[in-house]
Design a protein that fits this description.
This protein is α/β, with parallel strands linked by helices and about 450 residues long. The protein has three domains: about 5-130, no CATH class; about 135-255, Rossmann fold (3-Layer(aba) Sandwich), CATH 3.40.50.720; about 260-450, no CATH class. It contains 17 helices and eleven strands. The protein has helices at about 5-30, 35-60, 70-95, 100, 105-125, 130-135, 145-155, 190-195, 210-220, 235-240, 260-295, 345-355, 360-365, 380-390, 405-410, 415-425, 430-450; strands at about 135-140, 165-170, 185, 200-205, 225-230, 245, 250-255, 300-310, 315-320, 370, 400-405. The strands form three sheets. It has a seven-stranded mixed β-sheet with strand order 3-2-1-4-5-7-6, with helices on both faces. The protein has a two-stranded antiparallel sheet with strand order 8-9. It is flat.
């Protein structure tokens, strides 16, 4: 169970049990009956009462998983939350008017007892099953400073949540290790091998500034599912968000998913609707362009090429042909350049206006591409870039696009390294408004011809 699921389950159970306790209190107070006059007051207020108790639970940290680490701290937090909820419920019943004044005060007191028992009870029961609900995380802490050791000890105290610190990593010989009972497994340059050997699930870097290159290698170049987090410095907090805390130590995850699930689903629905509609609207234009290509350049009209998509899978991308036949027969795979002699006059116009990309509406419709995303590259060049450019694999976490931030922000001959930076900026800040902005910018590029390829 993830932290998010725990919070959702906690909210749902608390909402249910708070009301079960109130109904149970009515049964206790009125000898197994629910008098309509008194119970009617509750029936009119139960949504507000539920919101009050959930708000009180939030105030006192009941939806932070770490609250269940100790029975006494748990009981104290529940007492505070239930007491606040009871006082606010009594106040609401008093000030809500004559209709709700019949809400029995004794019921509220009895409900306090039942709510305490139920809310503590299910959380206490959860403590016995944390090993099942939270599978073990094998954690590697990078650093041997006081902060790193403190972090490791805090994690060990949360062993019931599946945390197991396997060991520490030294930055260099110059780093003086703090005495600790945990093993020091090696140096920063050995971290990739240590992760594989020790089957590490989570890496926490306690010195993000000092280990910048190490972080980039782990977060952007590894092919595993290792979660990488850093203890952020001030400048990183300014440009990012803290994802979690261990005790009072903030952590920032740098391997989080590129986009939330709801956004991916919404974007896919829009891709289907818009691509299908545009295909119908531009079908006459497609026939005209195909006829012009056939008359001026001959057969074939369409050109397909293998490209690398999401998760490294390959697919055929479709375009109107803009180059002479067998353009790479002698040279082999090469990137198109500005003023490329292989591009025909008609093909140059199609590229400038981006009309050559229209057949990719079919790629969008079947789900191989999206309107906005990193441009898909050919396997030949991907293999080269993966070897030479740190973090190039990261761009395959999202679906490729017909247009992207790199295409509207860079020039025709922008280097792969610079394109990657724009791709990563888009991936980790993408939203529907940003997609719309990129599409509008694409139209501007088409109309001005700037950066067309």
């Amino acid at each position: 169970m993830s932290r998010t699921r725990f919070i959702i389950v906690s909210l749902a159970l608390d909402a249910l049990l708070v009301n079960v306790a109130v109904v149970g209190a009515f049964f206790v107070r009125f000898g197994g009956e629910l008098p309509s006059f008194n119970f009617g007051a509750y029936a009119g207020l139960w949504p507000l009462i539920t919101a009050i108790y959930l708000g009180a639970g939030y105030v006192f940290g009941l939806y932070e998983p770490e609250r269940t680490e100790g029975s006494w701290e748990l009981a104290r937090a529940v007492i505070q939350a239930v007491t606040l909820g009871t006082l606010l419920t009594a106040a609401v019943a008093f000030f809500a008017g004559p209709r709700f004044f019949s809400f029995s005060r004794l019921v509220i007191v009895i409900a306090w007892v039942l709510q305490f028992a139920l809310l503590v009870g299910w959380r206490a029961a959860l403590l016995r099953f944390t090993a099942v609900l939270w599978p073990q995380q094998r954690i590697l802490v990078v650093g041997t400073t006081q902060l790193a050791v403190e972090l490791a000890r805090e994690l060990e105290q949360r062993a019931s949540w599946g945390y197991r610190v396997i060991g520490l990593i030294r930055h260099s010989d110059a780093e003086t290790p703090v005495t600790t009972g945990l093993p020091v497994l090696g140096y920063a340059e050995d971290v990739t091998g240590i992760i594989a050997r020790e089957r590490i699930d989570r890496v926490i870097v306690a010195s993000p500034v000092a280990l910048r290159e190490l972080i980039e290698d782990m977060a952007l170049s590894n092919e595993s599912d290792v979660r990488v987090e850093v203890v952020p410095e001030l400048y990183e907090i300014f440009i990012g968000t803290v994802d979690s805390t261990i005790s009072d130590i903030p952590l920032m995850e740098i391997t989080r998913p590129a986009a939330p699930g709801w956004y991916v689903s919404a974007k896919r629905l829009l891709d289907i609707a818009v691509s299908a509609s545009v295909l119908v609207i531009v079908s006459p234009l497609l026939l005209v362009v195909a006829s012009v290509i056939l008359l001026t350049m001959g057969w074939p009209v369409l050109f397909s090429q293998e490209r690398v998509g999401r998760n490294g899978t390959t697919f055929k991308v479709w375009k109107f042909r803009t180059m002479v036949n067998d353009a790479e027969a002698l040279s082999g795979p090469v990137l198109a350049e500005q003023g490329d002699p292989r591009i025909t006059p008609v093909g140059r116009f199609l590229r400038t206006t981006r009309i050559d990309e229209l057949p990719q509406l079919a790629n969008i419709l079947v789900g191989e591409m999206s309107f906005v995303g990193p441009r898909p590259e050919r396997p030949f060049f991907v293999e080269q870039y993966v070897r030479e450019i740190p973090g190039y694999r990261e761009r395959f976490k999202v679906k490729p696009g017909v247009t992207g931030l790199a295409q509207v922000s860079g020039g025709y001959a922008t280097t792969p390294e610079r394109k990657l930076k724009f791709d990563l900026i888009y991936m980790y800040h993408q939203n529907l408004l940003m997609d719309l902005q990129i599409l509008v910018e694409t139209v501007r590029v088409v109309l001005t011809g700037r950066g067309a390829r």
